[in-house]
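TA notes, week 10

Several of you asked for a full example with nothing omitted. So below is the full record: structure tokens for the whole chain, then the designed sequence directly under it. When grading your own attempts, check the secondary structure regions first.
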């Protein structure tokens, strides 16, 4: 057991050297990441669900945080209802009011917010080219993202969010890893997952 603290003591300094702390200055990623929070940024592959720091395509001198929705080779469809990646809709569940908007969990892993008064968006689709990612803001009505930019190059100079620290509330704790505060519903009690499993069971076998 004594080897574990020793191993941690050896690994921690080089690990910390890879991380950069930044204070969040806007609410584009609220409710998950909010103005005033501190995030630790480090290297990473930027998989779906990760929050990345990238140069704002509209103003490259400004860094912004956005969440990866799809990676190269995947097709993203947006418009009415949930985002769809390769034809599969993201699982979205209403959590409750968040200011004038509604907070929803997406994939039971992170929170987004949307206005019930927002006009329905025209259906749009993108196929993510090699070396790119498709990103969205968690505040789906209050920030620019891939819907305006299209797929962005996967050269995230300031890294991937490893750790978020900020005030706790009903849906999030004082810190989170990878900017994901879920799950809020145990997988065994998630009706969406249960329905999908039942559909798989009832599907005819190809044998």
């Amino acid at each position: 057991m004594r080897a574990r603290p020793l191993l941690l003591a050896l690994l921690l300094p080089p690990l910390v050297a890879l991380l950069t702390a930044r204070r969040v200055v806007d609410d584009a990623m609220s409710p998950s990441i909010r103005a005033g929070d501190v995030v630790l940024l480090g290297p990473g592959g930027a998989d779906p669900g990760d929050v990345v720091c990238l140069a704002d395509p509209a103003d490259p001198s400004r860094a912004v945080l956005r969440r990866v929705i799809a990676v190269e080779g995947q097709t993203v469809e947006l418009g009415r209802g949930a985002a769809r990646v390769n034809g599969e809709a993201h699982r979205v569940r209403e959590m409750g009011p968040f200011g004038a908007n509604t907070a929803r969990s997406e994939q039971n892993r992170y929170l987004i917010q949307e206005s019930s008064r927002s006009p329905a968006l025209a259906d749009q689709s993108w196929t993510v080219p090699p070396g790119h990612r498709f990103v969205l803001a968690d505040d789906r009505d209050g920030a620019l993202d891939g819907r305006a930019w299209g797929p962005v190059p996967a050269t995230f100079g300031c890294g991937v969010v490893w750790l978020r620290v900020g005030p706790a509330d009903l849906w999030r704790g004082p810190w989170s890893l990878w900017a994901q505060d879920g799950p809020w519903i145990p997988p065994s009690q998630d009706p969406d997952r249960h329905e999908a499993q039942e559909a798989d069971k009832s599907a005819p076998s190809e044998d």
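The two ends are 50 Å apart (CA to CA). Use that as a sanity check on your answer.
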